[in-house]
Specification:
Protein name: Rap-GAP domain-containing protein
Number of strands: 21
Strand content: 5-15%
Radius of gyration: 52 Å
Strand order of the largest sheet: 15-16-17-14-18-19-20-21
Number of helices: 51
Largest sheet: 8 strands, mixed
InterPro entries: ARM-type_fold, Rap/Ran-GAP_sf, Rap/Ran_GAP_dom, Tuberin-type_domain, Tuberin/Ral-act_asu, Tuberin_N
Shape: elongated
Keywords: GTPase activation, Membrane, Transmembrane, Transmembrane helix
Region (Disordered): 761-784
Transmembrane segments: 1194-1214
Oligomer: single chain
Helix content: 40-55%
Structural class: alpha+beta
Length: 1298
């Protein structure tokens, strides 16, 4: 049989080979066996994976042929001989073709196989039972494979063409069912199964997109069921193709209508969920779910809408009202809380994790709050709270969601307090807020509003700037709160915002001493954590978007330690020392911001722990002296030294070396302010975090300059008398510098500082060498006692200008009693003696200060003048020691001023200008719950703490007849009160406008206006805030509107104190146990460089001195801050004596007027010169008259022109002129004008010395008459110019520069 078959096959092959040229039309005589033989031929290639039972002897002509040629020949024979292909045999042939093709990787084989299948479909009938499903699987797999590369696109087109032929055949519906069967086979895990499923999905998509009428209809509902099975495989690629098919379905209105009619929405949505859940962020997933928007009206069932809502949340689409209602329908507050709390599943978490659903989350929060309010079950409320906490702790939840949920907890806590909920619920809410603290700023905002009042009762502050509170009757687990924020300080929070809030709010909370008075272990743990972080520089790194760096965190940590320092009475000495040492070591060693905060911390230490600072001061001074290269720290270092100079207990043990270091710091900053050290500045630049923030200190070089001189003045006054001579040469060198021409320059404030040192050193020394009394003030010439009596006889008064000193002597010729008054830039001093030497300076040689009889007159460098100019030797009435000629204070000439009204008026004007730097600051008491200025200004008293503060702020001075500058307070009728609080030392004075010391008016409006007349005109006001609310600049501006107040120093008791508590607890408590938060708040454009720019906590004992120092600093800088003017020089009283530019301008105007009249006089007199010359030849009197006319007119013209030129020179180039020239111009011009005026008077005004007398018009000499009138005007002008040069000589001569 086998041999026969082989023979027949060979014969067929030979015959077939012969018929190739005839296109396979004739296969006789093997018609009945052709199909079998073709099957055997394809199988003979061994590619189908089947074992042949017959060993074939292939003819030699077929040795080189391939599988695709065999399939092409089979297709050719089938095309012409289809009738001989019986269905069973054809089924075997198709099976072999499909099997051989599947194992092939040649596209030619696939093309041949598809051609064969297409031939079968056209010329024969595909056996459906045996071949339809395998064929459809083959087509699906081939269609998918062809789509993976561009080079196989033709194969895909061929595959689609074969599929269309099949669909158009009577097997079209069976083809669709075969596709459904492939999709529902759940065989996408294998390689072939995956290709078949994806290919089937691709074919279905193309069929849905194709709109040929002849194609069979796709049953969408059935298709969706199979798609659901395919999507259930979990393969992401399959999901992608399923999504494409679903999108195509939704694009066809007929398909969606069929789905709706067949109630297929549930399966459809479940299929969508399956293929969207694994990749909801995919674009096709978004498109698929988004298309559901158009079909929402067709979806009526609540549970289906619930699914749609889930899908919207998954892909991040906005929820429509029906969807949101469906999602939260099970969470209605009308239902028991436990019912809808149990349903809080991933749907809620999906909303929480997407910022798109902010509104929906807010609605949920409202629902939760409503449920909390309506519930009467503590268990239900507790369950709700715990669920909210779990939602907050979700890592994926947005910050907004966490914030809204935390706000719900905070609101519930507030509701619980208002409604009197059980202590258990309140504790549950409080602990929930503690848990949420690391996730949300809202939790911090709620918790840090909790405070304790002065008696230790808890309350909740409802608003920052309003006195509104809720009392907390039951105890709360505060230790859990302390532990929560301590952990955050140690480890950080979930968000930077939450960490920063805790960092900034903790320092304020620490100021509430009653909160921690019973929790010192917790306080010590906070101190340990914060101190360790600063010591090890272990800070949380701020995120990039904040533009901050670690120094910001370090500065906040330092401020927390400053607040902890206020507990120094409860801490051990070692703990306090460690804090001081930390501030000292950190200052100057790190970033500018950190160093600034440490300097401020050391300032507070000086007031709070002076005993420790005294022992640590040597290191602090050394540290400050090493900061001179950091110019940004200049203001803060100088503030520290200025405040320290007013605390004698701290520098009691200072050595000369310590003083020299302080003066050296001032010297360095003076050089920096002058620009001398610009090239030597440290090359280190600020960090990026700070460089973006403009430093206010850079804009205040004038303030640094003035403050450095103040510090020198304060510290020089604090020196012992015996030590001043050791440091004076060094200070003098600090106050001078050389310009580009190598000329020594002494600036205005340098001169007055030198004058101040000389005045202090010249004062009579006390009997012991103790410290100088810091409260001594200047002696005013206006209130000086008159020492002369009738027995003294005639008193001669003389005024002499000697360099910077105006020396007035009043001498009784009979008794020799002499009163020497020395007016100088830094003040006025006087000496009373009978013969001897009046020591008014130590710059003249001959020993130190003293005032009595000093006969040491043999010093070669000593300079003196006789008390009475007529006593040239000074042996009769004595002498006055004056500055050396070469000294900056002295002069080569002594100018005796004339005894006329101009000199007297100029001296009186000088006496009216106080040498003290006089400042003013308001003090306002804000009582409990007071928020309007009418109520505030009605206060005539305050709490005991306030009264103690005011009492120690300065001395009580009577206003009526006061000799000091009352800064606008009435000194005649007591309309502003009988007394004022005044603080002063030898150079500075501060008058405090205390509103409670001013009497009230019956009318509130009048009362407010009268008090605000002072308060509203003060640049600086101190506000003692006992209202219970917080006060910032905006709030204070709303209470006291005005444009002139730049600074408020707000003092707030650290523990809320009611009216009754202040007058019960406050009376018995030691002021060292009272604590106050002090903060300087300023208008936004004002440079706030105060040590209290951040809130500082100080005790009641330290409060007056600390606040007074702050006020003095702000008074100085506020005078220099001129937002609408480029000039920012410090207008001190010393410098005000130098501001004579208006005088020069008046001199220019007057002299120009006089020059015009001088020109008129001279030109008119020249008309008669020839006649006069002829008369002079015959008359000596005529010759003399001619000469005097010429010289007087020339003298007047020269004096006027010299005055114009000198005044112009001083106005335009005054600051740049050499010191000797500035000293000389005024006296020289005064002498010149006096001479010219006297010379003119002798000739032209001999009648009364002022006018030309009674004019008798000369006939035919109108020009001469006009010259007389012009000369009279010249005399008047010269008189006024003389007054100007007298004033200028006094001021410029006293101060040396303008």
């Amino acid at each position: 049989m086998a041999a026969s078959s082989s023979s027949d096959y060979s014969s067929f092959i030979a015959a077939h080979g012969a018929m190739v040229s005839e296109d396979g039309r004739r296969i006789e005589p093997f018609e009945t066996q052709a199909c079998y033989m073709l099957t055997e031929e394809i199988r003979s290639f061994g590619l189908g994976g089947h074992d042949s039972s017959i060993s074939l002897a292939r003819p030699a002509s077929f040795q080189s042929e391939s599988l695709e040629i065999a399939m092409s020949k089979a297709a050719t024979i089938l095309r012409y001989n289809a009738k001989w292909f019986a269905p069973p045999a054809l089924a075997d042939l198709i099976t072999e073709v499909l099997a051989a093709t599947v194992d092939s990787s040649s596209s030619a084989v696939f093309h041949a196989a598809l051609d064969f299948l297409d031939t079968v479909l056209v010329y024969s009938i595909l056996p459906p039972k045996e071949c339809l499903y395998p064929t459809v699987r083959f087509l699906a797999r081939t269609y998918y494979s062809a789509s993976r590369a561009n080079k196989t696109k033709k194969l895909g087109s061929k595959c689609w063409s074969v599929g269309l032929h099949l669909l158009h055949s009577h097997l079209g519906h069976e083809f669709l069912f075969a596709l459904h069967k492939i999709l529902g086979a759940e065989d996408s895990t294998s390689k072939d199964g995956f290709g078949e499923v994806v290919g089937a999905l691709m074919v279905v998509k193309e069929l849905l997109r194709s709109r040929e009428a002849q194609l069979p209809d796709i049953k969408v509902t059935l298709l969706v069921l199979q798609l659901k099975v395919a999507a259930g495989s979990g393969n992401t690629i399959v999901h992608e193709y399923v999504r494409d098919v679903l999108i195509q379905i939704m694009m066809e209105e007929d398909s969606m209508q069929q789905l709706h009619q067949d109630a297929g929405w549930r399966d459809f949505l479940e299929t969508v969920v399956l293929c969207v859940a694994d990749d909801p962020q995919d674009a096709t997933a978004y498109e698929l779910v988004n298309r559901l928007n158009h079909h929402l009206p067709q979806i009526q069932q609540e549970d289906l809408l619930y699914k749609v809502g889930d899908l919207f949340v998954m892909v991040g689409l906005p929820l429509h009202l029906p969807l949101f209602t469906a999602i939260w329908s099970r969470r209605s507050p009308s239902k028991p809380i436990q019912t809808w709390v149990q349903g809080l599943d991933y749907r809620l978490r999906g909303l929480l994790c997407d910022p798109l659903y902010a509104d929906q989350v807010s609605d949920f929060v409202q629902s939760a709050i409503s449920g909390f309010e309506m519930s009467s079950s503590d268990a239900d409320k507790s369950a709700l709270v715990q669920e909210l906490v779990r939602c907050i702790e979700m890592d994926q939840a947005t910050s907004h969601s966490k914030g809204v949920l935390t706000m719900a907890l905070a609101y519930m806590f507030r509701i619980g307090l208002s409604d009197g909920d059980s202590p258990e619920i309140l504790c549950t809410l409080f602990l929930a807020l503690c848990q949420a603290l690391r996730y949300s700023t809202e939790a911090a905002s709620a918790l840090y509003r909790i405070r304790k009042d002065v008696e230790g009762h808890l309350y909740l502050r409802l608003a920052d700037h309003e006195p509104a509170f809720l009392e907390i009757a039951d105890p709360l687990p505060l230790d859990a709160w302390f532990a929560a924020f301590t952990d955050i300080l140690r480890e950080g929070a979930a968000t930077w915002e939450a960490y920063e809030w805790v960092l900034q709010a903790t320092k304020i909370l620490l100021g509430n001493h009653t909160m921690f008075s019973d929790s010192m272990p917790a306080l010590r743990e906070i101190m340990k954590v914060v101190k360790s972080a600063v010591d090890r520089s272990d800070y949380i790194e701020p995120p990039a978007h904040t533009a901050l760096n670690k120094s910001h965190v370090a500065a906040e940590l330092v401020q927390n330690l400053v607040a902890i320092l206020s507990y120094h009475r409860q801490l051990t000495k070692q703990e306090n020392l460690s804090l001081v040492a930390l501030f000292d070591s950190t200052a100057g060693s790190r970033d500018y911001i950190v160093s600034t905060q440490c300097i401020h911390a050391l300032t507070v230490c000086c007031y709070e722990v002076p005993d420790l600072m005294s022992s640590h001061m040597d290191g602090v001074i050394n540290r400050m002296s090493r900061m001179v290269t950091q110019r940004y720290l200049a203001i803060h270092v100088l503030h520290f030294f200025a405040g320290l100079s007013r605390l004698p207990d701290l520098y009691r043990n200072f050595t000369v070396g310590d003083y020299m270091r302080i003066f050296g710091v001032c010297h360095s900053y003076l050089q920096s302010a002058r620009g001398a050290h610009a090239a030597a500045e440290r090359s280190q630049t600020p960090t990026s975090g700070q460089s973006s923030v403009p430093r206010m200190e850079e804009a205040l070089p004038e303030y640094v300059y003035a403050l450095a001189h103040h510090v020198i003045t304060f510290w020089y006054m604090s020196l012992k008398s015996g030590d001043r001579e050791k440091v004076k040469p060094y200070i003098t060198g600090c106050l001078t510098y050389k310009d580009a021409d190598d000329s020594v320059i002494i600036e205005d404030q340098g001169l007055v500082t030198l004058d101040m040192m000389d005045r202090i050193d010249a004062e009579p020394r006390p009997s012991d060498d103790s410290d100088q009394d810091d409260e001594d003030v200047e002696t005013s010439a206006a209130n000086m006692p008159d020492p002369f009596f009738a027995v003294d006889g005639r008193v001669i008064e003389t005024h002499r200008l000697i360099g910077l000193l105006l020396v007035t002597t009043k001498l009784a010729l009979r008794t020799g009693k002499a009163l020497i008054i020395v007016r100088r830039p830094s003040g006025t001093a006087w000496r009373l003696l009978v013969k001897g030497i009046a020591q008014v300076t130590v710059d003249g040689g001959g020993g130190g200060g003293g005032g009595g009889d000093d006969d040491d007159d043999d010093d070669d460098d000593a300079c003196s003048i006789p008390i009475w100019p007529g006593d040239s030797s000074g042996r009769t009435y004595g002498t006055i020691r004056i500055p050396r000629r070469a000294s900056a204070l002295g002069s080569k000439t002594v100018i005796t001023l004339p005894q006329d009204d101009a000199v007297r008026r100029a001296i009186e004007a000088f006496d009216r200008t106080s040498a003290l730097d006089s400042h003013k600051a308001g003090v306002v008491y804000v009582g409990e719950r007071q928020t309007t200025e009418d109520r505030i200004f009605q206060n005539i008293s305050g709490s005991p703490g306030y009264r103690e503060f005011v009492k120690n702020l300065g001395a009580l001075e009577r206003l009526r007849g006061a000799a000091f500058n009352t800064q606008g307070l009435d000194r005649a009728e007591d309309t502003d009160g009988e007394f004022a609080i005044v603080w002063h030392n030898k150079v500075t004075e501060v008058v405090f406008h205390v509103t409670t010391m001013m009497p009230n008016s019956d009318d509130a409006t009048t009362n407010t206006g009268r008090k605000k007349r002072h308060i509203g005109n003060n640049h600086v006001n101190i506000v003692y805030n006992n209202s219970g609310g917080m006060l910032d600049y905006e709030t204070l501006y709303n209470i006291f509107p005005g444009q002139l107040t730049y600074v408020y120093i707000v003092i707030t008791p650290s523990a809320r104190t009611s009216f009754v508590e202040a007058r019960t607890v406050g009376v018995t408590r030691d002021k060292r146990e009272w604590f106050y938060a002090v903060q300087v708040v300023t208008r936004p454009d004002y440079p706030n460089v105060s040590p209290a720019v951040e809130e500082k906590v100080v005790s009641g004992a330290s409060l007056p001195g600390f606040v007074r120092n702050l006020a003095l600093n702000e008074c100085i800088i506020s005078l220099m801050w001129t937002p609408r003017n480029d000039s920012a020089e410090y207008p001190s009283s010393w410098r005000s004596n130098l501001l004579i530019r208006p005088v020069h301008i008046c001199q220019i105007v007057l002299s120009s007027y006089g020059a015009y009249h001088s020109y008129r006089a001279i030109t008119n007199l020249q008309k008669y010169e020839d006649v006069t010359k002829k008369a002079a030849k015959w008359s000596t009197e005529a010759e003399n008259q001619l000469e005097r006319t010429r010289t007087t007119q020339a003298a007047g013209a020269i004096a006027i022109l010299a005055s114009i030129l000198a005044a112009l020179l001083l106005v335009l180039l005054g600051p740049s002129l050499p010191t000797w020239l500035r000293f000389s111009i005024s006296p020289a011009l005064l002498v010149g004008v006096l001479f010219a005026r006297g010379h003119i008077k002798n000739h032209w005004a001999s009648h009364n010395g002022k006018t030309v007398g009674k004019r008798i018009p000369l006939p035919n000499m109108e020009g001469y008459n006009e010259a007389q009138r012009a000369t009279e005007e010249v005399l008047r002008v010269l008189e006024w110019v003389e007054y100007g040069w007298v004033a200028n000589t006094l001021v410029v001569g006293l101060l040396g520069s303008r």
